[in-house]
Task: inverse folding
């Protein structure tokens, strides 16, 4: 309380004290010259100021002294009360702050830590004692250069509150993200901090995964689009842009109906609608004609997503075209097969019937009129009959040859069984010639049983037929698996084939030997070659080292 | 029982029909051979017969499968679907032994399927055996 000194005669200075007292204010004039005890004239507030007589003054002074004592006592009581309340309140306040989940720090104007709570201690890498009384700059050297510090300064200077998310690097290298609420105070600033490092990480992970997802979608070979509930294109990837022949800008934000007028009537749209409405997934193959007239085939996978529906589209136009072409080829092939079958049937009946007539009537002639004919006539008749017989054989062989052009069912065929069956079929020829046949262990192949029987029968049959006179036939059958093909050999010690004929013997009806000694029309090897070619393989013959022939053929795993 | 056996030979090739007749000339079994040169006339032959007493005129049908107009399979089908005719044994004669024909014929209940042998002797033998089997060895349904 500022005091005015009043001049009160020589050596006296009166200092007026104005003390509020209930409804009245009392002004005490205290004589400063005599030390601390106020020897004061009292004036009633509102009373007339003037000189009081001493008795009056003494009485008044005693009253005042009494009142003052009372006043002092009351004041002291109040101070005690208030202090206690204040302390309790402050304790509560401190307790609350101490136990808060959020970090709390009070920073004084000189950037010193005045108060930190437990949460803040946990957030920072320091103990409470290390922080209190020290400045931020001491604890976090270099903090002055940070964005955070700039914000703190701004709050302090402009007395404004701020909130911010801050990535903070602690001196030990630890990184954390904190949501800060900064409040200016009369002396310094108050900072509330929430550790959101984990949230931040989760959020980042989510964003990263979303970005990855989008990147993956962007570079996907399949078209991808997200269509919103209002049928607008919300997302399209590059592949879809290519598929649609629209630009990204023409698609995004535009509805499906606007982009493809009349789309509502299509099956695709009905499925899209169903998926959008029933939140179900659907997979379909469909043709689609774009507004520019281009028709394409798509494999579509439709699934509901939060935004609407997600449509994955794979352009299968080429595959579809190939499929259609293949189907057409298959149909043509079937047709050809049917024609061939028809031809076979007609040939077997219509070609043979006249032949039978020739042969039969010549024989009837011989039978009825044989007695009247001379030797020449009988010889001519014999040639006529023989010719007809050979013609029949040729027709039969030709039919067999043409039949092996047909598509056969493929299965796993054990060549050991095939050869065993062949040898059983040729049993008579083997026993008559006294031949020995050695068969190695043969592989299994993927082929038609009929084809394999036919080829083995032809090759082993030839080996028996073209045997060298006076030599016991020896035949060896070998087989192996070589990379992508199977390789078989039928080796004999027969009459052999001159190298000049090594190629021509595979043409139909090609015969190298005297008909009177070796029967046959010369179709066997042609059939064998036809079969082998159907399996992408080849057949050839080499001369054996000790005469005889070595017939070899291959079959490819995958038919061309 | 002394009644002459009646055979209906259905075939369009006169040479073939004649060959069968010639083959039968020496046959020990007395029989009457009626010829029908296509499917329709075979049909007519069968229809004209036995309308009164419901007895089929033929005891055996020799059927050449390769016929004009109504082909062999169709003739066979008509016979085997007919209430009375179906009892007549039908022997299908074919030049080829195509499995397609064999299956189709048995599918239509042919009584037997035989190919015509190329060699004349074999053919004579076949005709004789067929007749012996169907007209002598087995019992056929006969009218009173």
Result:
């Amino acid at each position: 309380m500022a005091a005015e000194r009043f001049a009160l005669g020589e050596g006296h200075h009166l200092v007026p004290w104005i003390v509020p007292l209930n409804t009245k204010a009392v002004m005490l004039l205290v004589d400063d010259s005599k030390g601390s005890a106020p020897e004061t004239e009292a004036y009633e507030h509102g009373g007339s100021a003037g000189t009081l007589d001493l008795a009056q003054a003494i009485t008044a002074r005693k009253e005042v002294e009494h009142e003052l004592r009372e006043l002092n006592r009351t004041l002291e009581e109040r101070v005690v009360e208030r202090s206690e309340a204040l302390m309790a309140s402050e304790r509560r306040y401190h307790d609350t702050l101490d136990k808060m989940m959020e970090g709390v720090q009070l920073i004084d104007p000189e950037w010193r830590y005045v108060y930190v709570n437990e949460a803040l201690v946990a957030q920072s890498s320091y103990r409470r004692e290390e922080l209190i009384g020290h400045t931020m700059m001491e604890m976090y050297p270099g903090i002055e250069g940070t964005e955070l510090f700039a914000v703190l300064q701004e709050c302090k200077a402009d007395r404004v509150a701020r909130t911010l998310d801050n990535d903070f690097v602690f001196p030990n290298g630890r990184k954390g993200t904190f949501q800060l609420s900064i409040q200016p105070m009369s002396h310094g600033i108050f900072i509330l901090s929430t550790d959101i490092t984990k949230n931040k990480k989760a959020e980042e992970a989510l964003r990263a995964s979303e970005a990855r997802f989008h990147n993956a979608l962007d570079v996907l070979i399949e078209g991808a689009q997200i269509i919103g509930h209002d049928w607008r294109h919300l997302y399209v990837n590059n592949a879809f842009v290519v598929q649609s022949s629209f630009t990204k800008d023409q698609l995004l934000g535009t509805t499906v109906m606007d982009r493809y007028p009349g789309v509502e009537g299509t099956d695709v749209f009905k499925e899209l609608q169903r998926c959008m409405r029933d939140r179900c997934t659907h997979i379909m193959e469909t043709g689609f004609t774009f507004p520019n007239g281009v028709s394409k085939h798509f494999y579509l996978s439709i699934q509901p997503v939060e935004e609407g529906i997600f449509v994955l589209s794979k352009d299968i136009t080429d595959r579809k075209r190939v499929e259609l072409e293949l189907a057409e080829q298959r149909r043509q092939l079937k047709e050809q097969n049917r024609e061939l079958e028809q031809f076979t049937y007609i040939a077997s009946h219509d070609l043979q019937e006249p032949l039978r007539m020739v042969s039969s009537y010549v024989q009837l002639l011989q039978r009825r009129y044989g007695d009247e004919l001379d030797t020449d006539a009988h010889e001519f008749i014999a040639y006529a009959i023989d010719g007809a017989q050979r013609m029949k054989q040729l027709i039969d062989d030709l039919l067999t040859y043409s039949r092996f052009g047909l598509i056969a069912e493929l299965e796993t065929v054990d060549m050991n069984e095939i050869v065993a069956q062949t040898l059983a079929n040729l049993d008579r020829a083997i026993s008559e010639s006294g031949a020995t046949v050695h068969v190695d262990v043969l592989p299994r192949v993927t082929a038609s049983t009929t084809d394999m029987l036919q080829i083995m029968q032809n090759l082993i049959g030839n080996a028996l037929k073209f045997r060298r006179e006076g030599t016991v036939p020896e035949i060896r059958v070998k087989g192996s698996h070589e990379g992508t093909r199977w390789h078989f050999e039928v080796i004999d010690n027969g009459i052999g084939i001159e190298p000049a004929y090594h190629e021509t013997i595979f043409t139909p009806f090609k015969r190298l030997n005297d008909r009177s000694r070796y029967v046959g029309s010369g179709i066997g090897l042609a059939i064998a070659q036809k079969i082998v070619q159907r399996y992408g393989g080849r057949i050839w013959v080499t001369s054996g080292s000790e005469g005889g022939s070595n017939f070899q053929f291959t079959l490819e795993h995958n038919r061309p | 029982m002394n009644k002459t056996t009646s055979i209906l030979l259905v075939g369009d090739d006169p040479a073939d029909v004649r060959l069968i007749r010639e083959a039968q000339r020496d046959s020990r079994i007395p029989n009457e051979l009626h010829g029908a040169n296509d499917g329709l006339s075979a049909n007519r032959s069968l229809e004209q017969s036995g309308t009164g007493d419901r007895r089929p005129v033929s005891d055996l049908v020799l059927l050449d499968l390769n016929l004009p107009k109504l082909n062999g399979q169709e003739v066979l089908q008509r016979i085997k679907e007919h209430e009375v005719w179906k009892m007549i044994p039908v022997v299908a004669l074919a030049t080829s032994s195509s499995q397609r024909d064999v299956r189709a014929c048995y599918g239509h209940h042919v009584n037997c399927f035989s190919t015509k042998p190329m060699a004349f002797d074999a053919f004579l033998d076949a005709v004789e055996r067929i007749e012996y089997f169907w007209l002598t060895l087995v019992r056929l349904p006969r009218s009173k």
Summary: Chain B has five helices and five strands. Chain B touches chain A at residues 13, 15-16, 19, 22, 66, 94-96, 98, 100, 116, 118-121, 123 (CB under 8 Å). Residues 120-137 of chain B form the longest helix (18 residues). Residues 92 and 113 of chain B are 5 Å apart (CA to CA).
